[in-house]
Amino acid sequence: MSAQPVASTAATPNDLVLDVRDITLRFGGLTSLDKVSLTHTRGEVLSVIGPNGAGKTSLFNCLTGVYFPQEGEVRFYPEAGVERSVLGRKPYAVNRLGIARTFQNIRLFNALTALENVKIGIESRQKTGPIGAMLHMPWNRREERESDAEAFRLLEFVGLTKRANEVSSSLPYGDQRRLEIARALGTRPQLLLLDEPAAGTNPAEKRQLEVLIRAIAETGISVLLIEHDMKLVMSVATNVVVLNFGQVIASGTPKEIQRDPSVVEAYLGSGDEADSAAVPRKAAKKAPAKQPPATRTED
Amino acid sequence: MCFTSQFWQLTVAGLAIGSLYALIALGYTLVYGVLQLINFAHSEVFMAGGFGGLFLVRELVGDTAPGGAAAVLITTAGILGGALAGAGTAFVLERTAYRPLRRRGAPRLAYLISAIGASLFLYNLAGKEFGRLAIPMPDIYTSGTVFHIFGARVTTNQLVIAGAALVMLIALDRLVAKTRLGQGIRAVAQDAETASLMGVDINKVITLTFIIGGLLGGAAGFLYGLVFNVQYTMGFIPGVKAFTAAVLGGIGNVRGAVLGGLVLGLVENYGVACASSAYRDIIAFMILVLVLLVRPSGILGERLGRSA
Amino acid sequence: MSNPTLERGETPGPGSRLPWHRNEDYRRMFSLLMVGLVVALMTGPSGNRDHPTDGFTGSWFHPRVLLFLGAAAAIGVLMTLYDRSKGAGRRNPLQPVIAPITAVRDRMTSQPLLRYSVYAAILVFAVLYPMTLTPFWQRVLVDQIGVYVLLALGLNIVVGLAGLLDLGYIAFFAIGAYTTAYFTGKLPVAPPFTLNPFEVVPIAILATLVAGVLLGGPTLRLRGDYLAIVTLGFGEIVRILAVNGDAFFGTNVTNGPRGAVGIPHPSIHAFGINYDWTLKSLPYYYLLLVLVVGLLIAFNRLENSRVGRAWTAIREDEVAAAASGVPTVKYKLMAFAIGASTSGFAGVLYASKVGFISPDNFLLLFSLLVVTMVIFGGMGSLPGVVLGAAVLQWMPQVLRGKVPPEDRYIYFGALLILMMIFRPQGLLPSRRRSRELKLSEEGLGGADSLGATPGTTS
Known about the structure:
The complex is a heterotrimer.
Chain A: E1 16-27, E2 30-41, E3 45-49, H1 56-63, E4 71-76, E5 84-85, H2 91-97, E6 99-101, H3 114-123, H4 130-135, H5 138-158, H6 173-186, E7 191-195, H7 203-218, E8 222-226, H8 230-236, E9 239-244, E10 247-252, H9 254-259, H10 261-269, H11 281-286
Helix pairs in contact in A: 3-5, 3-6, 5-6
Chain B: H1 7-35, H2 42-60, H3 68-104, H4 108-130, E1 145-149, E2 152-155, H5 156-178, H6 180-190, H7 192-197, H8 202-227, H9 236-249, H10 254-274, H11 280-294
Antiparallel strand pairs in B: 1-2
Chain C: H1 24-43, H2 54-60, H3 64-86, H4 95-110, H5 112-128, H6 135-161, H7 169-183, H8 197-219, H9 224-244, E1 260-261, E2 267-270, E3 273-276, H10 281-303, H11 306-316, H12 318-323, H13 328-354, E4 356-357, H14 364-377, H15 382-398, H16 408-422, H17 431-441
Antiparallel strand pairs in C: 1-4, 2-3
Helix pairs in contact in C: 1-2, 1-3, 4-5, 6-10, 6-13, 6-14, 6-15, 7-8, 7-9, 7-13, 8-13, 11-13, 14-15, 14-16
């Protein structure tokens, strides 16, 4: 944790990137999120943890325009001093604000190559319309070159240069995860939401992911991370928020969270076998460090 | 208002044609319930019913209108004949245009295209075999005014259509609500995967759903032919209207389809009184677009797999 | 993505003990025999209203039925033998035919020289060959094939690239044609100024673009299969308006079922060029050739641009596309409008070539015909779509006199079903599309934008 990005040193209470205030999301009679608040300092890696069904993915969907919570507010600060409300915007509009995301169950464009997948993200910021494209205008060609260059740069960043021209569905699982991150980075976000990026990956891939998340944070992009894998969370997160039954039950640095009795209670008290892997470090050692990839249908 | 002067007359006519739309709409809604697909070829099921009923009735009716008990029997036979022809067509349709795709797990676009192909095939084949001119139904009875209600004339044709439709609608409602098959249909509509794990034979349920939709649609085809003519292209317009009715009531919702059919029949008739009968068919499309814009889930909502 | 796949049918291995009627070989034989009966019926004599069974008896109680059944049985036996010889690994029997074509195509992508020489050869052929044809075939080439190639190219953007099913496509063709009739002064209502058909082109494109946006704007937000039926309705509305337009609130606007007559031929009087197109087909052919080649280049660039990639993304996974910042509705609308304006453009050319239009030129059937061309040739594949349109318009002319012309739609309907069962990617598939279809059958991805449910996407 010593290699924290420089950006966070300048963090003051006013330098937020995301400010979630009291959002409540109900489905019929079921309250999925209950007055959830959290603040995300620019440049930090904030991790949201919690047992299955705690509302983590619901929270993500509220932040990305998929669900509209009945109450509360979500403010996003693309840069210091600029405030934008996230709620009420459609998913693509949220992305345009500067919030990019990945999916818990990988959602790549399967018939496109890795390079093309990344280009889709990049090109959503370009301007060429259909007529320019048909006429092959010089500015269109320039954009195309820029898009290629940027896509290669991002593939290199996530370590997939060699696979640039492979069809994305043929990539190994861990590579697909990283490709999805590259695609999200292509939209030049200020805030990157990662939904269980380590789910289903093997230990080697997990280490690569750890390095990658740190590298992303070092470029100044704030990362909001939902994760089951405690080891990963403890090693990359600056701050942690714990959700249970749709409520925030604790927040603080990873060290504080590990000591928090209510957190231990939430995990151990739930008696959920599958979640034992998500128990803070000490407990996790007893349980086999096996990641349940079975949560892929939740989205 | 333009329709107030003949309000009751228009209402009677609207309910009669509306109950036909309801019968056809059920075919769309049932199939949509189990497959989440619009069966574009359902209008040809309706057409097949028209021809089936027509040819059967033509064999039974002599040179003069039979009248009396014979007329009742022949009408019933015509409805049954139409229903059987419709069911047979629907069965073949499911086997050839849908099942091979389902076995392969084809994308949705493929189903739509294959259904359109089936529709194109069936109605043009009918045109080839039965001629392309409109064929009038032979006179089974002389349709005249039976009685008046609020000063509006109610004709024999309208009574026959509404009566037959009512019987079939009640029968279907009971079937879906009470029988094992109905239970299966509802289960598949709610969650096909779970239903199959619970031992429901999905293929069988789908086939039977097509057949039930075909029975209703085919019978509607015959009833339609009683009033209008039978022609190879007869399915298209009532088909689109019935689809509108299904969406209007909430596609996948059985009672919604009935309600949608009746509402559409009424609105169409009032609308014609206001504009011109030339625009009769446009009214339904306008309603369809409006419903989709304002409330795409329909009046009663898309309660898939619910009989209520 | 709700895929209507409910069950991946049981595929019993070859040696497994099943009742005979469930055995794959017998099932196939049964299907083939049924197909034989249907083909016998399709090709048999026609009936009519007074003799509705003539067609059936004439094809099934007639020695010719044996020919069809025999052929079906022979094919069945051959297929079974083929399977046995190959063992368990059943392969596409057409593979030997398709493999060389795909090999050439693969080499064409890697070798630009080969690619351009193939293009040049095709172009030279397309320029020279029609000169040797009789006037009849030249007319077919323009009125039937050329115009429909344009239509199919436009619809390919909508169906093939954006994955949207437009069943009222011919309505835009009608709007283009009626716009031409109006601005050349051939409709009962007088235009503010009369124009040469060439000058109508931008107006017609604009008009169809607007019509496309007006129709697509509200409906493209909905589930994809609703779009199909709404466009179907739109196509009928346009036609009904044209038919009843001779008494549109008391004025004769469209001349009703009689249509517009005497629409002038286009002519160029600019840049020192003076040329008048006449009744002759060949000059029109070259005009169309230039336009088609131009559109092929433009659409090919479009497909490989950010716009084309965005369409692919939407087709495959609308949710992920939106999450990657792609405004999905805007892009669908774009595809819809480009398709519509291409159709309108074709309408101008058709009206001025033939000189006469009536509502009968714009039947729903023709919309379905264009869909068939795109599917048959290969969704999303430019050469495929051109080939599909050409073959499907050429065939009926060859079979003229042998098959009643109205019967062609029976064959087209059957063709659509067969294509969907056996070769959904079409004759000359686009690489992306065939990859998608394959993946979709493995349960990955969508291959069309019809799967999205309202509320989850923009």
